[in-house]
Design a protein that fits this description.
The chain is mainly alpha-helical. The protein contains 30 helices and 8 strands. 61% of the residues lie in helices and 4% in strands. The strands form 4 sheets. The protein has a two-stranded antiparallel ribbon with strand order 1-2. It has a two-stranded antiparallel sheet with strand order 3-4. The protein has a two-stranded antiparallel ribbon with strand order 5-6. This is Gamma-tubulin complex component.
């Protein structure tokens, strides 16, 4: 009987011990989830003593039934370990569901799992200890002249607190199809128990699961390869979100080659990978997971430079081209970027030395070989690896790719730091912009003044200008809107969409924009969203610059005419009464123009000096002090956000008022230029009245308490002080002066 008991302890039943479990428990345990509530009542041991054993006392029967339940738990755990360690599914498809399963049940079909195989290895270790204990009991029984049941009970007593919880664990894993990070979560929760022996066993199982995780971390953070065939890692490919539940009939080698081909794509930096929250263990913080994500992506970039990746060598100053050749290159390029002359190829070994890769590998191996998972040590190692990756990425982007030179170029052209170039461009294109832009040729029409301005102002040493190209984006309003349209606005003729658009755009030429060609690896830094923000600020600044120039040109034209009239008056004082009268009528117009110029000039000075230059100096100090790529990205985002916010581009009410003011200024300039030939007092009075209302509204909004408490406050106060240095704006905003009168002389005093 004792030998029958020992065989039952190893899962073998017979006449003495009967197996009462249903056939489906032995054959298809993984379908328990579809069995519904029946499984809940059959989780207990299914081994029973034969009912015809009448020679056993009730106490003996109770002790034996408690012992043979260990045999049932052993058999089920051994079955789980055997099935999970079976590698036959590697040769088959990923989906190992039955061919008779309905297509709607594919999501519930079991897939291969390297984490479950690792847990099975740990369970096999525990079962090996159990088998050794059974063998020791057998030896004790054979050596004892009077074998008793107590020998068996004493030898296997400790497993009564181990095997039942482990059986519950694997049952939950099978029924809920728990895999990957979810499996680590489950084990981590089960570790918190009051039984030291059970805690040690589950910690050992968790250690085996962590071995897989550390192998995946090593592949990702040392080689930049995502080794996760069954979507169990918390770093996922972006396209896995839609395709993770689809069955795949491709073999492993084909799938690996396809993924390897994707690895060379730079687009994976921005949208290729993400942190999967459902597979992220709860004891790993999201911040740490994002650091792991960044480190792996950075290693991918460093280990897989673009096939055309090159580094620019210092340009030989002795090399120069003739002015005629340069003009030809400008015209031939049509504003598109061209390759710079001297380049040298780079290799992955230059970007990430093997010693650094070995250092990362050593840190992960130290964590992997530790008997316990130490959260603080893990986070510290991840932080160190992230720092290494960020430093080498900084070296690549900032030093090798000359990031600061490109930042300076974007400031020069998109933020109008090269004021002489844009002044020349606007002067050359002034007559062209008096006409409506032709949608088919507007961009080509602008290229001639653009190239002429470049020849006059851009030096030979500016190697970044060839990356700048001029574009005409979709119009903010009808393309026929120009000087003529602005002079004769007719709201009744515009549809509702046209009215809204006309408030947001000065004329059809407002769609002028710049594009900047960025090569690898600068796409990591200058994303499409970043360049879009630069483009938005540029369009705002070029409108402001154009408005200022028109006000200056109108003043020059009026002064030229006034000097000519004064000369005629001095020559013929007797017949100069008409000239003197015309000069007297023009004085209010000059005061209005001065008021407009005062506002536009101060606004331009505020944006270019108080905003752009001050924020640029802050950014430069960060670039000089920081050696971390992610820090630089963050500082640059803060720089752009400050430009947008402190220029009021993120406040719809303020930006609409400013656009309206610039529109009114252009209308006024074109009206007074035609004042001699076609005087229109009522139109000018209307423009003046609207300008007074808009400027007063602008001042009222800018000095509101909501803006005073924002990050704009320090520089905004300087802007308001310049506008209101003689309390004119404040007095006007309070309604002391009528907005319809032309008493504006004190504004420019």
């Amino acid at each position: 009987m004792l030998h029958e008991l020992l065989l039952a302890l190893l899962g073998f039943t017979g006449d003495f011990v009967l197996d009462a479990s249903p056939a489906r428990r032995r054959a298809a345990p993984l379908d328990a989830e579809s069995g519904g509530g029946d499984a809940d009542g059959e989780l207990g041991p299914a081994f029973r003593l034969a009912p015809d054993l009448t020679f056993l006392q009730p106490s003996e029967r109770s002790a034996i039934e408690r012992l043979i339940s260990l045999g049932f738990y052993y058999r089920e755990l051994n079955r789980f370990a055997t099935e999970s360690r079976d590698l036959s599914w590697i040769q088959s498809s990923v989906d190992v569901s039955s061919p008779y399963d309905d297509k709607t049940q594919k999501g519930k079909a079991r897939k291969g799992s390297v984490y479950r195989r690792a847990i099975a290895n740990g369970i096999t270790e525990i079962l090996s200890v159990y088998r050794s204990a059974v063998l020791q009991v057998e030896q004790n029984l054979l050596s004892d002249p009077l074998p008793i049941l107590a020998t068996v009970t004493h030898g296997l007593n400790k497993f009564e607190v181990l095997l039942p919880p482990l059986y519950e664990l694997v049952t939950e894993i099978e029924q809920k199809d728990i895999r990957g990070g979810q499996l680590l979560n489950l084990l981590h929760k089960r570790c918190h128990c009051g039984v030291p022996e059970l805690q040690s066993c589950i910690q050992r199982l968790l250690w085996h699961g962590h071995q897989v995780m550390f192998n995946q971390l090593t592949s990702w953070m040392v080689y930049g390869i995502l080794q996760d065939q069954y979507s169990e890692f918390f770093i996922r490919r972006q396209d896995d979100r839609d395709g993770e539940n689809d069955s795949s009939q491709r073999d492993v080698s084909d799938k690996f080659m396809q993924k390897l081909a994707k690895d060379t794509s730079l687009s994976s930096w921005h949208t290729g990978f993400h942190v999967s929250l459902d597979m992220l263990p709860e004891y790993i913080h999201m911040r740490v997971a994002e650091s792991i994500l960044f480190a792996g992506k950075a290693i991918r970039v460093l280990r897989n430079p673009s096939p055309g990746a090159t580094l620019q060598e210092p340009i030989n100053q002795n090399q120069s081209s003739k002015r005629s050749h340069r003009m030809q290159s400008f015209i031939g390029s049509s504003g598109s970027p061209k390759d710079l002359p001297n380049f040298s190829s780079i290799s992955a070994e230059e970007l990430l030395p093997q010693a650094e890769a070995d250092r990362i590998d050593a840190m992960l191996k130290e964590l992997k070989h530790s008997s316990e998972f130490h959260k603080r040590l893990f986070e510290s190692a991840v932080g160190s690896i992230r720092t290494i990756a960020a430093n080498h990425l900084w070296q690549l982007v900032v030093v090798r790719a000359d990031l600061n030179g490109h930042l300076k170029a974007l400031k020069d052209y998109f933020l109008l730091a090269k004021g002489d170039f844009f002044q020349c461009f606007l002067e050359e294109s002034r007559q062209l912009m008096r006409l409506p832009p032709r949608q088919s040729t507007a961009e080509a029409d602008l290229m001639v003044p653009f190239q002429l301005a470049a020849l006059k102002t851009i030096g030979e040493e500016d190697k970044y200008f060839t990356r700048v190209s001029l574009r005409m984006l979709s119009y903010g309003m009808k393309s026929s809107t120009s000087q003529k349209d602005l002079q004769k606005p007719n709201a009744s003729e515009l549809p509702s969409q046209g009215k809204a658009a006309s408030e947001l755009a000065l004329d059809g030429w407002d769609s002028i924009a710049l594009e900047y060609s960025v090569d690898w690896p600068l796409q990591l830094f200058f994303t499409p969203d970043v360049l879009s923000k630069y483009r938005k600020v540029f369009q705002y600044l070029i409108r402001l610059k154009r408005t200022q120039m028109e006000l200056e040109k109108s003043w020059a034209a009026v002064m030229h005419k006034d000097h000519a009239d004064f000369s005629d008056y001095c020559k013929d004082r007797k017949n100069g009464s008409a000239t003197q009268l015309r000069r007297q009528r023009s004085k209010p117009l000059w005061r209005v123009r001065e008021h407009m110029a005062f506002l536009i000039r101060n606004l331009q000075f505020y944006i270019q000096v108080d905003v752009i230059e001050s924020q640029w100096n802050v950014l430069q100090s960060h670039v000089q002090d920081s050696h971390d790529f992610t820090e630089l990205v963050s500082f640059h985002q803060e720089y752009l956000s400050a430009l947008v916010s402190q220029s009021f581009l993120d406040i719809g009410s303020v930006s609409r008022i400013l656009d309206s003011i610039m529109k009114l200024c252009l209308q006024f300039c074109w009206s007074i230029e035609q004042y001699e030939t076609r005087p229109n007092i009522s139109e000018i009075d209307h423009i003046t009245e609207e300008f007074n209302k808009k400027s007063n509204s602008l001042y009222t909004i800018l000095r509101s308490s909501r803006l005073a408490g924002s990050q704009r406050a320090p520089f905004l106060r300087q802007f308001l002080m310049r506008l209101n240095f003689n309390s004119f704006f404040e007095t006007t905003a309070r309604g002391v002066m009528n907005s319809g009168r032309l008493r504006l002389g004190t504004a420019g005093a």
